[in-house]
Design brief:
This protein is mainly β and about 400 residues long. It has one domain: 6 Propeller (Neuraminidase), CATH 2.120.10.10. It contains 1 helix and 28 strands. Strands 12, 13, 14, 15 and 16 form a 5-stranded antiparallel beta sheet that branches. A hairpin with a 6-residue loop joins strand 23 and strand 24. The N and C termini lie far apart (about 60 Å). About 45% of the residues are buried.
Length: about 400
């Protein structure tokens, strides 16, 4: 009889956190990786077939030795890649948003341009940047920091003038918010931009958050929504670098949040990002680094992250789901240790991705000095086991 009641207690616990249909996900552990598929070992990982690699920018030759947190967008047939640059170390001296353009799908690149910089010497550090091509205009969202590294104040919108090629400020969209990923459209007609925020201006952004636009007005005010209403975990601890990414599927939004010395956390929203579930653990091991996720036109989820390793951020991977499924089931490596062809590595991190004309363009930084582009044919990211892959 005691065995029976013990089993009953387990069943009550399980059903209290997840219903049979899985629409209301409240369980404490979610199968982000398909439990029917063995999680791949490092040795078993291959590169996707048909990829091309390009060094977009190599730091150290133009007065800026530090480069990090790249972003990419396509606007009117041109690829734009940007990052933040500092003269010596991270957010030391100055921090500017710079970038380059390619009109031939990433084979060649323009000279470096400045998107946001402290031209008036007001002590503003610009970190980082997120792009949004929207209704014929390319926007860039950049956080203003003042008083020291990571002390966020405002998130500023910039827009590109296609006639002059010059970027101009369009005003501030929200308070102490730092974007981590490009905005995406929601089912309710608004845009959602994943990132993190501070309790108030001039503090460090330790709260995972999303910004929600008011309709299709990227340069207007956005609402900031915390994923942790109290700003802390249940034990009262703050997350030092809660970089956030989201996967949008209609009004359903899934968020992944980086943690230090622990696996990332999952959050779920069923109302276009207005309210969020309690944090949830999952079974997909990730290193403490920025995560980037989204959906492909094939209906597959994709996820870019670093896998845990002794060396740190030396193994960067992409995982995909089967079309229409929630769990990831196939994975390839994007970078693995030092790359002789690029003469860079072994560190690779802070990815960003877009899909365009049958390809997926991935940008990421190396050693916090260089910016690299990898272009992957969309067909090479099929989730079935017959998808092509090659070993190094």
């Amino acid at each position: 009889m005691s065995t029976f009641w013990g089993l009953a207690a387990v069943l009550v616990f399980v059903f209290s956190y997840a219903d049979l249909g899985g629409e209301e996900v409240r369980q404490r552990r979610f199968p982000l990786w398909d439990e029917k598929v063995p999680f791949p070992s490092r040795e078993s990982l291959c590169f996707p077939e048909g990829t091309t690699d390009t060094m977009v920018h190599r730091s150290g030759t133009d007065g800026y030795a530090f480069l990090h947190d790249a972003a990419i967008a396509e606007h009117k047939g041109t690829l734009f890649v940007a990052w933040y640059n500092c003269p010596r170390g991270e957010m030391v001296g100055e921090s500017v948003i710079r970038g380059r353009r390619s009109r031939d799908a990433g084979r060649t690149w323009s000279d470096v341009e400045v998107i946001a910089g402290d031209r008036e010497k007001r002590g503003i550090l610009y970190v980082p940047v997120a792009f949004l091509p929207h209704r014929g205009t390319l926007y860039a969202f950049v956080t203003n920091m003042k008083g020291g590294p990571d002390l966020v104040h405002d998130c500023e919108a910039f827009a590109l003038d296609d006639q002059t090629g010059v970027w101009a400020g369009r005003g501030f969209i929200g308070g102490p918010f730092l974007p981590n990923c490009a905005p995406q459209p929601l089912a309710d007609g608004n845009l959602i931009m994943a990132g993190r925020m501070a309790e108030k201006s001039g503090q460090k952004p330790t709260i995972p958050a999303v910004a929600l636009s008011h309709g299709e007005n990227p340069a207007g005010p956005w609402d900031l929504v915390r994923l942790l209403p109290a700003g802390t975990l249940a034990d009262g601890q703050r997350i030092p670098f809660p970089e956030t990414t989201v996967i949008v599927e209609g009004k359903e939004v899934t968020a992944l949040v980086r943690r230090e010395k622990a696996n990332s956390l999952l959050f779920f929203s069923h109302d276009n990002g207005r309210t969020w579930s309690e944090p949830c653990e999952h079974n997909f091991p990730m290193a403490s680094s920025k995560i980037y996720a989204g959906r492909l036109t094939t209906g597959q989820r994709y996820l870019l992250c670093n896998l845990p390793s002794r060396a740190g951020r030396d193994l960067l991977v992409i995982a995909v789901s089967r079309p229409g499924e929630k769990a990831f089931s196939r994975m390839w490596k994007i970078r693995d240790g030092y790359c002789q062809a690029l003469k860079s590595g072994p560190e690779w991190s802070y990815p960003c991705a877009i899909e365009s004309d049958g390809s997926v363009h991935l940008v990421y930084t190396s050693e916090k000095r260089h910016c690299v582009l990898m272009t992957v044919p969309l067909a090479s990211l099929a989730a079935d086991s017959s998808a092509p892959a090659v070993r190094p």
